[in-house]
Automatic annotation (TrEMBL), chain A:
Pfam families registered for this protein in UniProt: 2-oxoacid_dh, Biotin_lipoyl, E3_binding
Native species: Phytohabitans flavus
Record flagged with keyword Acyltransferase: yes
InterPro entries xref list: 2-oxoA_DH_lipoyl-BS (IPR003016), 2-oxoacid_DH_actylTfrase (IPR001078), 2-oxoacid_DH_E2_comp (IPR050743), Biotin_lipoyl (IPR000089), CAT-like_dom_sf (IPR023213), E3-bd_dom_sf (IPR036625), PSBD (IPR004167), Single_hybrid_motif (IPR011053)
Enzymatic class: transferase
Region of interest (Disordered), residue spans: 80-126
UniProt record similarity statement: Belongs to the 2-oxoacid dehydrogenase family.
EC number: 2.3.1.-
Domain named Peripheral subunit-binding (PSBD): residues: 148-185
GO cellular component, one term: cytoplasm
All residue ranges annotated as the Lipoyl-binding domain in the record: 4-79
Protein name as annotated: Dihydrolipoamide acetyltransferase component of pyruvate dehydrogenase complex
Automatic annotation (TrEMBL), chain B:
Gene behind the chain: pdhA
Protein name: Pyruvate dehydrogenase E1 component subunit alpha
Domain Dehydrogenase E1 component span(s) in chain numbering: 62-336
MF-aspect GO terms: magnesium ion binding; oxidoreductase activity, acting on the aldehyde or oxo group of donors, disulfide as acceptor
Organism classification: Bacteria, Bacillati, Actinomycetota, Actinomycetes, Micromonosporales
NCBIfam families linked: PDH_E1_alph_x
GO terms under biological process: branched-chain amino acid catabolic process
Region (Disordered): 1-21
The organism of origin for this protein: Phytohabitans flavus
Alphabetical list of InterPro entries matching this protein: Alpha-ketoacid_DH_E1_comp (IPR050771), DH_E1 (IPR001017), PdhA/BkdA (IPR017596), THDP-binding (IPR029061)
Keyword list, A-Z: Oxidoreductase, Pyruvate, Thiamine pyrophosphate
One family name in Pfam for this protein: E1_dh
Cofactors (names): thiamine diphosphate
């Protein structure tokens, strides 16, 4: 038995496949005791300290801080008898639980051939299919990361037409200050002649992991599987905004937080009822049309973009829908969205308007056939009853899977969503 | 609210981390003895133990904390699938566990390692369960402790049925009567099972003590999300006495549990004891408590540590000297090392043991399934099951 023992990363929390090395608490050459904390590891569930499994001397550390390690991979080697001269080859110890991530089908021991079981005729054994891959966590296209800036600075930038995402902040935590915005406005006037300095210090390398990794995988798989088509519609949603104000004035709605997104959700739910094929999944040899809508709402959080969904949203009265949307977003922002809330979505709305843009060409979450982008609502000149008036105008963008939905259906669906938002009262009377 | 005053219901919230105003306490966090303490049930509680008994309680507390820490480490090292730590709840478990008489029956949740220890169950047995080697391998009839119950609150109904059975067997009514203690947590009180158990026990006057360890969190849900009144007062509505005890005080817990069990065995019906305590660690090794509670709250409870106060008391009263403290620490360390060695040496279970103990006297259906499974295992090359 070798005295150099390799310690593999265990499954620290019931079914995890990987963990990130946060911090090494020991260094090569350190003498350690049994159960002395050696490393902090963060998994999807918790950040924990791992205590040393053996006393001895740290022989090698196999992964740097910040790296993500699969369960079952050795992270540290410990010389359990450092007084005994040169060590031999390390010995691996198995982990009790956790077998590392599955790559493709489960491997299994070869079955005996028929001949080897001789006279006994075994009962027909149904071989279970390889376990399905974990359900993809539904993700929608990532809107640009929100730059750090205080609200007055944001307004200042908006007024000057400066895009904060392109700026380098000089304020606390890299936040963008009023001066930064001012500098950006005057920058084009300055001579652009300075040779850019591309020294390595000016490049940042961000490891790809967690939500970012998942988002990327989903986006790539969706973008190169489903042929996307996007159609746009610009509408006057003044009447919707007025309807919201009247709703807010009702006593029973007084404490409810509502935004135009609520009416967009309602419009989508009603329009899906009129065009069910929009709410479907391409399953290879068939199209699954769902009679229920699990409505996904894309939410930007500190950990990245996540898309929790409201189960069976079509059945909810408007008031409950409003509560569900508020709860959904708050849960997402606090980083407590349960995996179940992120799977099983059937239609997604991405509210790109909150980032101040007019529309987008969103990418479908895998398994969904349409996604609606809701742009910023702006006061804009509009021809209203034959005259130019200032109205509340927005642009809707609908991306859909052209394998399932033809241009005509996509256009009809988007027109219905637009019709509802243009005149919610009449649409409700006509459609419900 | 004065002790024993059961006047107007207090409006407002139960807040995790706030000191309980109205509990039975016989040993303060500083190790000062309180002679008498009146419970919410109007009973005056007191306790008088021998020096040997005080030392025994201290030894129990220290040893189970050390064994628990070893189990947590073993999980982090990949040797247990999961572990539910009792850190912080030692006094509630030892106080109630030691109050049991040999004929009494306990129904645990999945965290009562300290109660098991007090009942003489080999500490390796809860670990073999959490290692996935067996389904819980102590004999409930021999040790008078039922299997761990993972389903929240389900054991309260099992315990109630068992207690009703004791009555039907005519084993209630004297000093040698039997009683049942049923453990559960604050979160379980929101379960239907627990409320049903309260009703059945109350109506049938079952000889049972409901022992709720209110550790302030149901995984991540704080107590204020479970109740608007102190949990012990729920008993009022069901028609039996309820009281709250300082669950970090092993003496008070011992005193109130002993009285409640005696009441039960003498035919006085059920009692609800709310042991007011705090889970110092995670809900299980799969949980990260820093995501839902603040460090300052944990520090406050650290100051009410169940072991520190007993140590302060026995030292001040010269019940124990430094040599005794060191000897207990060494015993705890050695027991933990033994536990570790035995866990590491534990063989994997034979796959066919899955079919054992399904029925007490076997079943042809299970036998056939076992046979089929054996054939299936045999169908692999290199199979030597």
């Amino acid at each position: 038995m070798s005295r150099i023992k390799e310690f593999p990363l265990p499954d620290l929390g019931e079914g995890l496949v990987e963990g990130e090395i946060l911090k090494w608490l020991v260094a090569v050459g350190d003498t350690i005791e049994l159960n002395q904390p050696i490393v902090e590891v963060e998994t999807a569930k918790a950040a924990v300290e791992i205590p040393a499994k053996w006393a001895g001397k740290v022989h090698a550390i196999h992964h740097e801080e910040g790296t993500t390690v699969e369960v079952g991979v050795p992270i540290i080697s410990i010389d359990t008898d450092p007084g005994a001269g040169e060590p031999a080859e390390p010995e691996r110890t198995p982990v009790l639980v956790g077998y590392g991530p599955r790559t493709g089908a489960a491997s299994r021991r070869p079955r005996r051939t028929n001949g080897s079981t001789a006279a006994v005729s075994p009962p027909p054994v149904v071989v279970a299919p390889a376990p399905p891959p974990p359900p993809p966590v539904v993700e929608a296209p990532a809107p640009p990361a929100r730059a750090l800036a205080k609200p007055p600075v944001r307004k200042f930038a908006r007024d000057l037409g400066v895009d904060l995402t392109g700026l380098v902040g000089t304020g606390p935590q890299g936040s963008i200050t009023r001066d930064d915005v001012q500098a950006a406005v005057s920058a084009p006037a300055a001579a652009p002649a300075l040779a850019p300095d591309f020294a390595a210090g000016r490049e940042q390398r961000i490891p790809i992991k967690g939500v970012r990794k998942l988002t990327a995988e989903n986006m790539v798989s969706s973008a190169f599987t489903a042929p996307h088509v996007t159609v746009f519609l610009t509408i006057d949603m003044t009447r919707s905004m007025e309807a919201l104000d009247r709703l807010r004035a009702l006593p029973e709605w007084r404490e409810v937080r509502i935004s135009p997104l609520l009416l967009v959700a309602k419009a989508v739910l009603l329009a899906v009822g009129r065009h069910p094929l929009v709410n479907s999944t391409w399953a290879g040899d068939e199209i699954i049309v769902k009679q229920y809508v699990n409505l996904g709402i894309a939410a930007a959080t500190e950990r990245g973009l996540i898309v929790p969904n409201i189960k069976d949203a079509g059945r909810l009265p408007l008031r409950e829908l409003a509560d569900a949307m508020t709860a959904l977003v708050q849960t997402a922002k606090s980083g407590r969205t349960a995996p179940a809330d992120m799977s099983g979505g059937t239609f997604t709305i991405t509210n790109v308007g909150v980032f101040g843009v007019d529309t987008g060409t969103p990418i479908l979450p895998p398994g969904e056939s349409a996604i609606l982008a809701f742009g910023a609502v702006r006061a804009a000149p509009w021809v209203h009853e034959g005259e130019i008036r200032v109205r509340q105008v927005t642009t809707l963008g609908l991306s859909f899977d052209h394998r399932i939905i033809d241009g005509e259906l996509g256009a009809k669906f988007l027109r219905d969503v637009g019709a509802f938002l243009t005149d919610p009262e009449a649409s409700l009377l006509a459609w419900t | 609210m004065a002790k024993g005053d059961r006047g107007a219901p207090a409006r407002g919230k139960e807040v995790a981390g706030e000191p309980a105003p109205d509990f039975v306490q016989l040993l303060t966090p500083d190790g000062e003895r309180i002679d008498k303490s009146v419970g919410a049930d109007g009973v005056e509680y007191t306790i008088d133990l021998t020096d040997e008994e005080y030392r025994g309680l201290y030894r129990d507390l220290v040893v189970i904390r050390r064994l628990d820490a070893e189990a947590t480490a073993l999980q982090r090292q990949g040797e247990l699938g999961i572990w539910a730590s009792l850190l912080g709840q030692e006094a509630a478990q030892v106080g109630s566990g030691r109050a049991l008489r040999p004929q009494d029956m306990a129904f645990p949740t999945y965290r009562e390692h300290g109660v098991l220890y007090c009942r003489g169950i080999d500490p390796i047995l809860p670990l073999s369960l959490y290692r996935g080697v067996d389904q819980g391998a102590w004999d409930p009839a021999e040790f008078k402790v039922n299997m761990y119950t993972i389903v929240i609150g389900a054991q309260t109904l099992h315990a109630t049925g068992y207690a009703m059975g004791i009555t039907k067997d005519g084993k209630v009514g004297g000093d040698d009567g039997e009683a049942v203690i049923c453990y559960f947590g604050d979160g379980a009180t929101s379960q239907g099972d627990v409320n049903e158990a309260f009703i059945w026990s109350s109506v049938f006057h079952a000889p049972i003590v409901f022992f709720c360890q209110n550790n302030q969190y149901a995984i991540s849900e704080p107590i204020e999300k479970q109740t608007r009144i102190p949990l012990y007062r729920r008993a009022d509505g069901f028609g039996f006495p309820g009281l709250r005890v300082d669950g970090n005080d092993v003496l008070a817990t011992y005193a109130v549990t002993r009285t409640a069990l005696d009441n039960a065995r003498h035919g006085q019906g059920p009692t609800l004891i709310e042991a007011y305590t705090y889970r110092m660690g995670a809900h299980t090794t799969t949980d990260d408590p820093t995501r839902y509670r603040v460090a300052s709250e944990v520090e406050e409870w650290q100051a009410r540590d169940p072991i520190a106060r007993v140590r302060a008391f026995v030292e001040k009263q010269q019940i124990a000297d430094a040599a005794f403290i060191a000897e207990v620490d060494e015993q705890a360390k050695q027991e933990a090392l033994q536990l570790r060695e035995r866990v590491l040496a534990m063989p994997d279970p034979h796959p066919l043991t899955l079919f054992d103990h399904v029925y007490p006297n076997g079943s042809p259906v299970v036998d056939a399934q076992r046979e089929r499974y054996a054939e299936y295992l045999d169908s692999f090359e290199g199979s030597a099951h």
